[in-house]
Amino acid sequence: MKRYEGGIVRGRKQTFGIVRVEPEVLANREEAINTAQSMLPLFDGLPVVLVAEKEGEKPLYFARPDLMKFLMDFHLPSVDWKEYTL
C-alpha cells in the first residue's frame, strides 16, 4: 500500500481530485497517466490532477487541458489536504 496526499478542489465550473506526487512521476507520461487512473476510485471517478512541487519553483501539473487552464491561477494552499492509501 502506498500513501498519497490529496484533496478535492471545487471551482465554479470544475471539480476534481488533486494528488501530490514526486516530480519523477510527471517526467514519465505513461507513469503519470497510470498514476492518475489509479487514483480515480479515491475520488469517486472525478478527474484527477497530479501535482509535483520542488522547493523554490512553481508547481508542475499533469491534467486535462481544461483543468490546466483552471490551474494557471490556482493556489495549492487552498486545498484541504488529507492522506489517502491506495
Structural topology:
Elements: E1 3-10, E2 15-20, H1 23-27, H2 29-39, E3 48-52, E4 60-62, H3 65-71, E5 82-85
Parallel strand pairs: 2-3
Antiparallel strand pairs: 1-2, 1-5, 3-4
Short summary:
The chain is of the alpha+beta class and 86 residues long. It has helices at residues 23-27, 29-39, 65-71, and strands at residues 3-10, 15-20, 48-52, 60-62, 82-85.
Structure characterization notes:
- By secondary structure, this protein is an alpha+beta fold.
- The chain has one domain (3-75): Trna Endonuclease, Chain: A, domain 1 (3-Layer(aba) Sandwich), CATH 3.40.1350.
- The protein is built from three helices and five strands, in the order E-E-H-H-E-E-H-E.
- The chain has a five-stranded mixed sheet, sandwiched between helices.
- Strand 1 and strand 2 (15-20) form a beta hairpin.
- The longest helix is centred in the middle third of the chain and has 11 residues, at 29-39.
- The mean pLDDT is 92.
